Amino acid sequence: MTSGTAEPTPEVAFVLGGGGVHGAAEVGMIRALLEHAVQPDIILGTSIGALNGALLAADPDTALERLCSLWTNVDANNPFEASLVEQASTFARTRTHLHGNHRLRRLILAALPVRRFEELAVPFQCVAASIERAAARWFDRGELVSALLASTAVPGLLPPVEVDGEHHLDGGLVDSIPVGRAVELGARVVYVLQVGRVETGLTVPTKPWQVGTVAFEIVRRHRFIEELQAAPDEVEVHVLPTGDPMDPDDPAQLRYRDLTRVGERIEAAYDATSAYLAEHLAAEAGPSGTPSGARHQRNVTTDQGL
């Protein structure tokens, strides 16, 4: 967003959460939202949601084409090196991460038609975790690519990203699904685009590898759930369904390079979100048949896992 004149208060916010390769689901949700004529006044993103959100904010008219090209061209667009030799070499050199972010930078530069926040068609913000301050750092102006690299810097996989003298890691560490930020900025209708984690409840771990994943899920979810519960009555929050909820007990969720189900995730999320929107927008339509949005004072969430 630009400085100077005050920005208008956004009515409708799209909030795109993190989740790595599972972020393909957000593409299906975006398609469904646009087909139902739901347009954002502001877009907020974390990690992979920041990348998807920036592409949407750059030009909503061409966003689907760009997003589908990005997500379905698996071989060209995977930001992680497949070679174990390359990974071992990177780790031996850095002692902190397995992959460089040069492939991700190249991907962002090729996919984004703009380079600065001020050039985006829709106001957009993304979040990263400042190491030095142990705090959330929100980006909303200036150079865009570094902000996206910071928001997507998964610890252990990608290097910290320096911006303005501070080093940053993945935004999911501090605000995985930033509903509260949307409410803080004045949004009255919030559409949450998530990757399926929050649709499934957690259970006590019974296997060694589950201890870490369950702990991480608690870290990811607790703020989101608290922000949903704290949303004012006059704010509508729609948590869109993926049609393919993630099983927290499934070790497949740890395969961060596995893009084989991208197409399935996009289509499942599109179908599920289309059905959700058809039901809820019809229910909220005013006398003329036009959705009345935030004039209906209630919160809407998914039933599973929350």
Overview of the structural elements:
- With 306 residues, the protein is an alpha/beta fold.
- It has helices spanning 24-35, 48-58, 63-72, 74-77, 84-94, 102-111, 144-151, 179-184, 208-230, 262-283; strands spanning 12-16, 42-46, 124-130, 135-139, 161-163, 166-169, 189-193, 236-239.
- Strands 1, 2, 3, 4, 5, 6, 7 and 8 form an 8-stranded mixed β-sheet that branches.
- A hairpin with a 4-residue loop joins strand 3 (124-130) and strand 4.
- Helix 1 runs antiparallel to helix 3, helix 2 packs antiparallel against helix 3 (63-72) and helix 6 (102-111) crosses helix 7 (144-151).
- The chain is globular, with a radius of gyration of 19 Å.
- It starts with 11 loop residues before the first strand and ends in a 23-residue tail after the last helix.
Task: Describe how the helices and strands are arranged.
Blueprint: E1 12-16, H1 24-35, E2 42-46, H2 48-58, H3 63-72, H4 74-77, H5 84-94, H6 102-111, E3 124-130, E4 135-139, H7 144-151, E5 161-163, E6 166-169, H8 179-184, E7 189-193, H9 208-230, E8 236-239, H10 262-283
Parallel strand pairs: 1-2, 1-7, 2-3, 7-8
Antiparallel strand pairs: 3-4, 3-6, 5-6
Helix pairs in contact: 1-3, 1-10, 2-3, 6-7
